[in-house]
Amino acid sequence: MRVLDRGDQLRKELDAARAAGRTVGLVPTMGALHQGHASLIRRSARECDLTAVTVFVNPLQFGPSEDLDSYPADLASDISVATAAGAALLFAPPVDDMYPGGRPGVTVHVAGVDMLEGASRPGHFDGVATVVAKLFNLAGPCRAYFGEKDWQQLGVVRRLAVDLSFPVEVVGCPTVREPDGLACSSRNGKLSPTEREAATVLYRALTAAAGEPDPRRRMAEVVAGEPLATLDYAEVVEDRLLIAARIGGVRLIDNMRVGV
Ligand code: AMP
């Protein structure tokens, strides 16, 4: 696997691959790769001739009081996870390669995402849409792989691809969980051992609420029973239960299709 750190190199490599008739799969991540990311990379490697993984902790999608500075980073481990999962390229640019001169003058604003994650994290999805649009333009992927773990983000990316006519198929992939149900997340590593145990409350709340007449209330009750957890939201949107909670200082999200 080759590691690149400049957008123009990535573009050149992937333009050449497509010109040679190879399909390109893209897996955008913020690094600290875990089994959830690996499942996306493996799927891309199965379905595409060449898979590029991007590792970029995008400052635009973090609010001023969020964990940008403490977000976990381990490029050596990312390289070995991505290699083992079948990636051919890993693109890990510095911030000034993605945003020369600081904040970009052009950003992508996504309308209608001002509920749940959008409301809790103002500007977050604009940051996501802007960096994903840039990565689509640099990489020109045939398919791009995103996790259902970030269900609202998946919706934003699908909308971005349709509304801005990116010639990419956005592929949603199922959530990978630890054996006790906790969804794999780069932020799980920030939990203390007691917080790690408490963090299963998100999954416990989702499974307890599925099929209940008042799932929002049931999720809130389960979270209230966990002393280390503070509920941010518990909602039902279309066929999904969505939950966000803080465990100590770490904010986690999860979701589940009703009836699963
Ligand atoms: P992140 O590095 O957290 O920004 O995530 C990069 C991609 O991996 C996003 O499309 C996420 O939805 C996806 N992802 C993160 N965690 C999981 C998981 N547990 N299962 C499946 N996909 C995931």
Lay out the secondary structure:
Blueprint (H helix, E strand, L loop, with lengths): L1 E3 L2 H13 L4 E6 L5 H13 L2 E6 L19 H11 L3 E3 L3 H4 L18 H4 L3 H16 L3 E5 L3 H13 L5 E5 L19 H6 L2 H9 L5 H10 L4 E9 L2 E8 L2 E8 L3
Parallel strand pairs: 1-4, 2-3, 2-5, 3-4, 5-6
Antiparallel strand pairs: 7-8, 8-9
Helix pairs in contact: 2-3, 6-7, 9-10
The structure holds adenosine monophosphate.
The site of adenosine monophosphate has 17 residues, from helix 2 and strand 5.
Care to give the gist of this entry?
The protein is an alpha/beta fold and 260 residues long. It has helices spanning 7-19, 35-47, 75-85, 95-98, 117-120, 124-139, 151-163, 193-198, 201-209, 215-224, and strands at residues 2-4, 24-29, 50-55, 89-91, 143-147, 169-173, 229-237, 240-247, 250-257. It folds into two domains: 2-173, 3-Layer(aba) Sandwich (Rossmann fold); 186-254, Pantoate-beta-alanine ligase, C-terminal domain (Pantoate--beta-alanine Ligase, Chain: A,domain 2, 2-Layer Sandwich).
What can you see in these coordinates?
Strands 1-4-3-2-5-6 form a six-stranded parallel sheet, sandwiched between helices. It has a three-stranded antiparallel sheet with strand order 7-8-9. 38% of the residues lie in helices and 20% in strands. It is an alpha/beta fold. The protein folds into two domains: 2-173, HUPs (Rossmann fold, 3-Layer(aba) Sandwich); 186-254, Pantoate--beta-alanine Ligase, Chain: A,domain 2 (2-Layer Sandwich), CATH 3.30.1300. It is built from ten helices and nine strands. Helix 2 links the parallel strand 2 (24-29) and strand 3. Helix 6 packs across helix 7. The N and C termini lie far apart (37 Å). Bound molecules: adenosine monophosphate (AMP).
